[in-house]
Design a protein that fits this description.
single chain, about 180 residues, alpha+beta, Porin, about 45% strand
Length: about 180
C-alpha cells in the first residue's frame, strides 16, 4: 500500500514543477478525452479472467503450493479505437484471487497497437491500466492499481495480461484474461 502512496506523491511532485506541469496537463487532457470517447462508444466487450501466474523467481514453494492460479471470473467493458488504431477500454472484472476470495478490478486501459497484417485483423500492443482493485485483505476498500499491460488480438478476440509488481512472496503476478468484442 505504501508504494501506491509514493506513486501519488511522485505524480503530485511532477504536477507542480513548471516544465513537467505542461506535459502532465496535456496528458491529463488527452486522458480525459479518451475516457470520454470510450464511455460514449457503442462497442462492448466481455472479459473472461482465467489465470494468475505467480512468478516462481519471487515466491517460495510454500506460497506457490497454497495460492490459487485459476483466477476464473467475468467482466464487462466498453472499447474505443482512436485514429491511430490504439485501443482504449473501460472495464470492470471480478475473479477469484490468489487466496480464493473475490477480487474486483475496474478502470481505464490503453494499448498502443501494431498491426501485423494489412487487413488490420491481427495486432500486438503494450500499454497500461489505471485501475482500482478491491480485495479482502483491505476490507474491500478500493486501492489504486496502475499496471503495465500487453495484448495480442485477432479480430474480435484478444488475449491480454497485466503484471502486478511486488516483493518476495507478494505481488509479482501475471494476471491473464480473454477480451471478446461483442459488437
Amino acid at each position: 500500500m505504501k508504494k501506491y502512496f509514493l506513486l501519488i506523491i511522485l505524480i503530485s511532485f511532477f504536477a507542480v514543477s513548471s516544465p513537467a506541469q505542461a506535459d502532465f496537463n496535456t496528458y491529463l487532457d488527452t486522458l480525459q478525452e479518451n475516457v470520454k470517447n470510450t464511455w460514449n462508444s457503442d462497442h462492448y466487450d466481455v472479459y473472461l479472467p482465467f489465470y494468475a501466474w505467480h512468478n516462481r523467481l519471487t515466491y517460495d514453494q510454500h506460497h506457490i503450493d497454497k495460492y490459487n492460479e485459476e483466477a476464473w471470473g467475468f467482466g464487462i467493458g466498453k472499447s474505443y479505437y482512436d485514429y491511430k488504431g490504439n485501443w482504449h477500454g473501460l472495464y470492470a472484472m471480478g475473479f477469484k484471487d490468489s487466496n480464493f476470495y473475490l477480487e474486483t478490478i475496474y478502470g481505464y486501459a490503453f494499448l498502443k497497437n501494431w498491426y501485423v497484417n494489412c487487413n488490420r485483423d491481427f495486432s500486438v500492443g503494450v500499454g497500461y491500466t489505471l485501475s482500482l482493485t478491491q480485495r479482502h485483505e483491505y476490507s474491500y476498500i478500493p486501492v489504486p492499481l496502475p499496471l503495465p499491460i500487453a495484448g495480442i488480438s485477432y479480430k474480435n478476440l484478444a488475449l491480454q495480461a497485466a503484471y502486478v509488481p511486488g516483493i518476495k512472496n507478494d505481488g509479482n503476478v501475471l494476471f491473464v484474461w480473454l477480451k471478446v468484442a461483442i459488437n
